[in-house]
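Q: Entry one of two.
A:
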Amino acid sequence: MNELTIESLQTTILDIPLVRPHKFATTSMDRQPLLLVAIRTTGGVVGYGEGVVPGGPWWGGESVETMKAIIDGYIAPVIVGRRVDEITGIMLDIERVVARADFAKAAVDVALHDAWARSLGVPVHTLLGGAFRDSVEVTWALGAAPVDEIVAEAEQKLAQRLHFSFKLKMGALDPAEDTERVAAIAQALRGKAGVRVDINARWDRLTALRYLPRLAEAGVELIEQPTPGEQLEVLAELRQILPVPIMADESVCSPYDAFEVARRRAADVIAVKTTKCGGLARSRVIVAVAQAAGIACHGATSIEGPIGTAASIHFACAQPGINVGSELFGPLLFAEQLLIEPLRYADGRVALPQGPGLGVELDLDAVRMFTRN
C-alpha cells in the first residue's frame, strides 16, 4: 500500500484555560475548546488540524461537539483509504456528503496539508506556492476591563514591543456607552498605536450611522463588521460615508461572498479566517477574488490554538493578498502551552515556523492533560 494512504482519522476535544476572559459581542469565555484532528498515513506520518470557533456556536452555528460528530460520522469514511495528496478530490467528495460545516472541513483540510507536507519533508507553505516572507504582523485584542486598565495593557504591550496595533470588541454594551469607552481608549493611544474595533455584526443601520463617525473622529483606524453580515447594502453605505476602512468578516465565508462584497463595493478589507473559510484551499480562492477586485485581506483569527495558528501563519506568509496584517494571537491568550517549542512572537510579529509540515510539534503530555473526558 502507498505510504501516502490515509490509515486513520482521530478526533479529540481539548479544553484550554485562557490567561484572562475573552469577550465577544454576545458572549465571553475563560477557556477555549479545541477539536484536534489527527490523520495518520500508512507511512507512519501524522498530520494535525484543529477545529475551533470563536467562543462557541453563536458565530457560525458550529461547536467542537458538532465538528467531532460530523468528522467522525461523515467525513472520516470519505477519506480513510485515500491518499493525502488528493486534497482537491477529497474536499470535493466531502462537499457531496456534508453541506456547510466549514469549520469542521477546515480542520480536515489543514490535517491533510500537514500530513502531505510531512510525508514530503517540506513545510506546508511549499504546498501553497512557497513563503515570500518569514513573519506577519499581529494585532492584539484588548479585554473588557475599565478604560485605564485597557490603556495600561496596551502600553505594556508597546513597551515590550509585542504588538503595535490593538483591537477592541464592541456590541455588548449600550452603543453610547460602548462608543465613549472605545473613543477614550483610542484617544489615549493616539500617536502611539493603531486602534481598530470589531462590532461582530451587532448594530443596526441607524445605530451604526449615529455612532461610527464618532469612533472615526476619535482615531479608530478600521471598523470591522458593524452591521449584520447579510446586509451588504448597509455595509456599502457605511463604507461610502466613513473616512476609515470597513472590514467584512461575518459577511464573507465563501468565494461567492467575497465576489458579492466586491461587486457591491461593500468593504475595503476582508477578514480571512482559514477556519470559517473551510481551510487553506478555499481561503486561497477567497484571497484571489479579493485581489482581483482590489480589496485588501487580513489574517483573522477564531482564537485558534497553536495548530490552527501555525496553519494560518503558513497561509499568510505564502499569500501576498494578506496585506493588512493579522490577528494570529490565539496561543498568547492560552494559559497553557501545547507545543514543545512555542510559536515566536516579537517586534509586533509572529514568525513562520520552520521544519516539515506545519513546523510545530505537539506536547502529547499536555494534549492528554487537557483532553475532555
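Q: Entry two of two.
A:
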Amino acid sequence: MDKPPPSAQAAPIPLVVVAAVARNGALGRNNALPWRAPGDLRRFRDITWGRPLIMGRKTYQSIGGPLPGRETVVLTRDPNFLAGARPAHVHLASDFDAALGLAADLARAMGAEEVILAGGAEIYRLGLPRARLLRLTHVDCAPEADVYFPEIDWRQWRETRRERPPRGAEDEFALEFVDYQRV
C-alpha cells in the first residue's frame, strides 16, 4: 500500500462527491451502470480532469483501468491487488483516511484544488460526512440495481447550480446536473 507523506501542516483539500444517481437511488447493477448516458460520462470527465480520484476496487475494476489525466487512489483491503502490475497513476490505500491523505497530497502536487470521490456506494458512505460539495447527475429512471447511493440528510445541503441539458441522441434517459454545497 502507498503511504502518504505527512501533510499535517497543509491546508485541507475539499472533498467533492461526483455520482450519477437514478430516481430510486440506484448507482449500479452487476458492477456496471444500469443506463447508457454519454452526456454524464462527458460531465464526469470535465469535472474530474486534472484531479485525484478516490474509488473502491470494484469501481476501479468496472472502469477497466486508470483514467487519463487523473491520479487514481484505489481503496482496497487486498494488499496484493495489482501486485507487480500496477499501472502508472494508480495508487493504493488500505483505509479511507490513508486514501484521503494520499489524494490530498496528490492534489497539491498536481495543483488541483479538490479531491474527487468517485464511488462506489461504500466509498460514498464513508466520504459523505466529510464532503463539501456534491456534483450529482440525476438520471430520470428507476432501474433494478444492486448498488444504491447512501441516504443524504438534505438539511445539510443547499443547491447551488442546476442544468437540464438537452437529451443526447445516445443518452438512454434525460439527465439533470445538480451541484449542492454543504451548509
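A: Comment on entry two: The longest strand covers residues 15-22. The CA atoms of residues 56 and 75 lie 5 Å apart.
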